[in-house]
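Open question from group meeting: does this chain pack into something compact, or does most of it stay loose? Before anyone orders reagents, we agreed to write out a predicted structure and look at it together. Recording both the input and the output here so the notebook holds the full record.
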Amino acid sequence: MIAIDTNVLLRYLLQDDDKQSSKVNKLFAGKRQILISDVVLAETIWTLKGKRYKLSKDNLLSTIDALFKEPNVRFEDGQTVWRALNDYRTASPKNKVDFADTLILKKSQYDTKLKSESFDGLYTFDAALQQLNNTKKP
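C-alpha cells returned:
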C-alpha cells in the first residue's frame, strides 16, 4: 500500500498538469492500494470548493463518490467517511455545513465508540455544524 498527499490527489482529480497528472495516473492504474487519509480528503475537498476551483456541493459529492468506486483506493476510515458524506449530503440546503466538519463529528463519535466511552457531543462555535445532531454550543 502507498499513501498520497493532497497535491497528488488534486492532480489526479483535476488533470490540470500534464506531467504530474501522467505520473499520478500511473499510480492509480497500478496494482498497489492507495491510501487516502482523512486529512488528505478534507484538504482536497476544502481546496476544490475554495476560491480557485469553486466546485459546487453536488460536484464535491460526485467527486467523493467516484473515489469510493476506484478499485485501488482505500480510505483511512471508509465507513466513517461514508457517514460524514451522508450527513453532508443530507444537510439542508440552507445549512452551509462543511464536509470537514461532518467528518470531525463522525470521527469523534467513532473514536468514543471504539473506546467504549459515551459521546456527550461535539462542542463548536460553528452555527452550521450546530444544526447537526450531537453538537453543542460551548
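Observations to bring back to the group:
Helices lie at 6-14, 18-29, 38-49, 57-69, 78-90, 99-114.
The beta strands are 2-3, 34-36, 73-75, 122-123, 135-136.
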